[in-house]
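Record type: monomer structure entry
Structure origin: computed from sequence
Chain ID: A
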Amino acid sequence: MKENSVTPLDYLPRMPDNRSIGIGCIGAGFIMADCHLVAYKKADFNPVAIYSRTPSRAREVSERHDIPSVHETLEDLLNNPKVEVLDIAVPPNAQKAIIEQVVKRGTTIKGILAQKPIADTYEDAKTIVRLCQDAGIVLAVNQNMRYDQSIRACKSILEKGYLGGPVLATIDMRAIPHWLPWHESLGYLTLRNMSIHHLDTFRYWFGDPKSVYASVRPDPRTSFRHDDGICMYILEYENGLRAFSCDDVWTGPAREGAADDIYIKYRIEGLEGMAKGTIGWPSYPEPTPSTLEFTSTGIGKEWKQPKWNEVWFPDAFVGTMAQLLVALENGTEPEISGVDNLLTMALVDACYRSAREKRAVAIEEIVN
């Protein structure tokens, strides 16, 4: 590495040459209406049809985003000859049945972008992956934190060697998510809905850990049934790296009259450098770019601070669809394929087992 030099960082998604492929949208809630479709318009992607269990909501979203066709049933949407790719944005306990219906009818659908978490359990996720493989459908997962600009830029500096061998990585989330009515029916909370982002980010940055140790307790604010409100977990890597996250959806009585202190921060310490960043998502809907700064023995005693205008919500959703369209275009696997995401799902299940059995759980215990 040349002293005091920093090469451009790779933080934007790779885009397909053909952006006209017809996208059929399943679901018309917040994540579809305010994230997916907003991002697709920016990227000049082509949503051609939408279906929701609430037809009035689908019509409203179609009018807002100029989607030509609204379908009363999933079958009708699948019969639309303009739909080549499905974008599924429904609760995790509903995705398996949808994908089973898609493959059962011998559809001509070429690809599916499934929302994260792809299912309630690793075993159900494995079934979904197998169904798509058997049907010849390319499956990608909307694990969208991988396309946050800071997360990707940090991956770039790791690949360029600015930090040297990683020693310790931490993520600290103090944020209060907006839980939706469907969350109440799931029986779980933070690990599968929020921590899955951080577990997947650690995998994206560093690869797969050997084992994980997790400890959880309920969130005092959330009244419906759950164990995993506040979650802490340590990932142990063969090379000695330790990655730790504290995912706190309580953050003190910030909704009960006290001042708040809400953020998501991360830090990586390596043998030759350090990186630290913030995630802008807690400020949504205020568009707040995530940040990154890093230092290295190769660039001297200063902190480099790359800048960008994009934000995680909604701009990262360009990347999750783009990775599927690029894969279809080139006959390759998506960056976040269903097969790859199985290991993130296994890591989540390992956290649940660890917290329940109060021991470190090897990932092999889940995948074998």
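Annotation 1: The CA atoms of residues 284 and 313 lie 7 Å apart.
Annotation 2: The mean pLDDT is 95.
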